Amino acid sequence: MSQTVENFRRLEAQVAAISPSAKILAVSKTFGMVAVRELYDAGVREFGESRLEELAQKHAALPKDIVWHFIGRLQANKVRKVIQFSQFIESVDSLSLLQRIDRIAGEEKLHVTCLLEVNVSGEASKTGFVPAEVAAVLAQASAMEHVTCAGLMTMAPLDADERELTQYFTALRDCRDRLRQASGLALPVLSMGMSNDFEIAARCGSTELRIGSLIFGARS
Ligand SMILES: *Cc1c(COP(=O)(O)O)cnc(C)c1O
Q1: What are the DSSP E strand ranges found in 98-176?
Q2: In a 3-state reduction of DSSP, which class is residue 111?
Q3: Cα 55 to ligand 1 centroid, rounded to whole Å
Q4: Which of 19, 108, 114, 146 is the most buried (most CB within 10 A)?
């Protein structure tokens, strides 16, 4: 078994022991095709990328049944290209971006599943909606024909300690639960937790852990 596959299997076992409902999104950004292919051959089908150019290259070179999730900052002028390769966009951080994805997906006869990125820490450098904005965005989204909002995503500040991380991840889950009650939408996806905080996120109800370096090795 390759090191990458071994890392993935170990992580899967760790996650399963904490929360059987959390799945792993293998974040392959900056890592090479070989490692992605090894995971593919071991049965992994969902990968996360954060830059259009790299996504396009990997999409062209790797099997077509890979499901690519776009998890990076998405510039308006890249929407048309990104949705050719990725039917999941996890980093929708403004209503205008969501409206644009809906319009362009319609023009391209595609459908995109989106997550709304929420800034639960209030950290000024983080993008995303403040929790209080999300209900209004979801209400607008429910009238859009070419996008589905499947849930929420957050990135915790890198310097947060365990107590703060627990607080942020719990806040995102509570936000989702309130929105679910108020809107009647299912909002099944809570994308939170990365290599350094996945155990806490899994304990707080994450359904999708976005993990790169613990699987692929240190990013250079
Ligand atoms: C890079 C990245 C990850 C994965 O980070 P690791 O620390 O390597 O696990 C997760 N989410 C987003 C949005 C990222 O850009």
Answers
A1: 112-117, 147-153
A2: coil
A3: 15
A4: 114
As a whole number of angstroms, the distance between CA 34 and CA 204 comes to 33
Our mutation pick for probing the ligand 1 site, out of 50, 93, 192, counting the most ligand atoms within 8 A of Cβ, is 50
The letter for the amino acid at 6 is E
The CA distance from 134 to 122, in Å, is 14
**Whole-number Å distance between alpha carbons of 148 and 40:** 27
Closest Cα to atom 10 of ligand 1: 210
Helix (H, G, I), strand (E, B) or coil at 204: coil
Helix (H/G/I), strand (E/B), else coil: 70: strand
DSSP state of 78: G
Question: Structure pTM?
Answer: 0.96
| Angle, alpha carbons 15-38-219 (nearest 5°) | 70
C-alpha of 194 from chain center:
10
Ligand 1 pocket by Cβ (under 6 Å): 27, 29, 50, 71-72, 155, 194-196, 210-214
Cα(53)–Cα(59) distance, integer angstroms: 10
